[in-house]
Amino acid sequence: MYLTPQHILLAGASGLTGEHLLDRLLNEPTVTRVLAPSRKPLAEHPHLENPVGDPAVFLPQLSGRVDIAFCCLGTTIKQAGSEEAFRAVDLDMVVAFAKRAREMGARHLIVISAIGADPKSSIFYNRVKGEMEQALKAQDWPQLTIVRPSLLLGERLEPRLAEQLAGPLSRLIPGKYHGIEVCELARAMWRLALEEQDGVRVVESDELRKLGK
């Protein structure tokens, strides 16, 4: 059974995955409105609404019906500047976005987490991602889809050295640790959005690659 999404809320549209997903959404005939708040203006499109500014300010002001919400928010400790700043984005902002999406009527949330996410992990990054998943599950979504991609492969405006070095190697690793092309991830997220399945679904990277082919 499939949903026919009409009104989409998207966070992180200016990021690597978000921009690919936004392009796909705007070219889908069933999508009549994409509400994509961002810090910087996005390219104009007849079906795009793009509030620009500080998310902490405009998030409570978002309005209109929402059917499905996508969350592609994420940063690195280096970009954020500290572990505290990283948590503010990858945990606090994600949870706040999801809460607002639910208030706006969204019944399905598709969120990007990470391979190895675990609230009890000794690795800070994995622990925060696990805490984020835990917090979203506590929101009691009718349908929550958590995607856990491995290393994302794609051209960033601001290249990350670690990803540039690890990228070629990740293509050789089998299973869920094999790197995933960002275009495949975006396609997989859209396909998952069309599936109607109550409760929580966690999709690991190997399944994402199959869905995104």
TrEMBL record:
SMART domains: Semialdhyde_dh. Residues 7-106 form the Semialdehyde dehydrogenase NAD-binding domain. InterPro entries: NAD(P)-bd_dom (IPR016040), NAD(P)-bd_dom_sf (IPR036291), Semialdehyde_DH_NAD-bd (IPR000534). GO terms for molecular function: NAD binding; oxidoreductase activity, acting on the aldehyde or oxo group of donors, NAD or NADP as acceptor. Gene3D superfamilies: NAD(P)-binding Rossmann-like Domain (3.40.50.720). This is Nucleoside-diphosphate sugar epimerase. It comes from Pseudomonas aylmerensis.
